[in-house]
Hints:
The structure holds two protein chains of two kinds. By secondary structure, chain A is α/β, with parallel strands linked by helices. Helix content of chain A is 34%, strand content 26%.
Amino acid sequence: MGANGRIILDNVTVRYGRRVALEAVSGEFPAGSLTAVVGVNGAGKSTLLAAIAGVVRLAGGTVNCAARQRLAYLPQIAAIDCDYPLTVAELIALGGWREFGPFRSTRIALRARAAAAADTVGLTERLGRLIGEISVGELQRALFARLVLQDAAIILLDEPFAAVDAQTVPVLLDQVTRWRQEGRTVIAVVHDLDLVQAYFPLTLVLARRCLAWGATATALPAMAA
Amino acid sequence: MMSLHALIVEPFATLAFMRAALVACLALALMNGAVGTLLVLRRMSLDGEVLGHAVMPGAAVGFLYAGPSPLWLSLGGLASGLAVAALGGLITRGGARRDAALVAFYLVALSLGVLLVAWRGSNVDVMRVLFGTVLAIDRRALLEIAAVSSIIVLVIAALYRPLAVGAIDPGFLRAVGARAPYGALFSTLVVLALVASFQTFGTLLAVGPMLLPSAAARCWGLGAAVSMALATGFAFAASVAGLLLSYHVNLPSGPAIVLTAGLLFGISLAVANLLRRLAPISGRNA
């Protein structure tokens, strides 16, 4: 993936009305790094991901992200409207949006890649189901398969392990590990600190400001303080 | 005992205005199935209702300017409908405040429209803009309805994918760089559809043939395309049944059609719930 997966934050500040959600956060996510973002509720974790993805306006500072064109962003799962009659296969195939856009039809090669991605997250049997008929864990697996198709240099995950069942967590962690081996930059908001310790080499501790940022072993204790 | 032929075929075979009403309803049903299904799926039923009444003050100004001329009623309705759609789009913060603002729009628009028409026109004119004149559709109005309906169906066919993804996962659509104003485009289509329905069903009922058959079709848990086709079928069936009901029992036609569509919705809701209870589907929404 090379150096283009690097993200540099310089005094990044975000306000919602008068409330400061994120204040003067500076630092660097190296290309190909795997970082957990931790902090209490309202610490600005989701806001940080939105700022990197470029979907929220900065009140100050800059996000230097050369690969924003090749960035994939998975918001919290509640943002998906599951009442819509869409099949799991269709949801996964949307990962190829940059290839087919709003108007062109999907190619056979893309559909084969979608089926392969579904297989790696164990969803082959569910491809024909509607997204309203599967469990939360299965929906998150499908969204991960969609990310696989997006083939992004930078992957942002907002609480990917929250609310999913116990069998799904290892499947998702396997995929995160694969992304890391492929040299993609992965940033995930995580609540379970044991997971952070076991799987994430780098940690960023947020409380609107950056409390600690670096190797998990040295940064994570700031969370308890 | 009335024969089936006399019951169903004769009213349309003998009366030109019944035939015109039937063709108008079929043309409207084609676009209403597509627009209405997307309205329901995008959770915009209230927006549809509001835009239906937003057409009113503009149409009233058109009426003041040129009398009951279909062209000026349509142009005026289009202008005020689009203005309210734009205002509604500006209120992006969700929740109760948006609901209240939308309902305020519709109450103001409705009152203003009625005042304007009553100022220069008669009670008959007021009733006409409120409830439409499905039995007085002339050739020119028919052509307008057919043209608008065709355009809307074609545009929705072309834009279906971004409209659907925008409803399911708007963040994803933004993240993959599809930043065209699809939401605004869809609101424009809704206003166009409502303006085309205005002469037939009036400002109070125009949303009915759009929303009720689509809500009924959605009860059956089908895919989006099949749902649209079923909604069109429901809309047309309600139109035929409503027209015949109004003919034989001597009732106002517009309300008879909307009431029939409401009946279809009630039946769909009841039967779908019953089926679900008999054979529960696994999953969160079952």
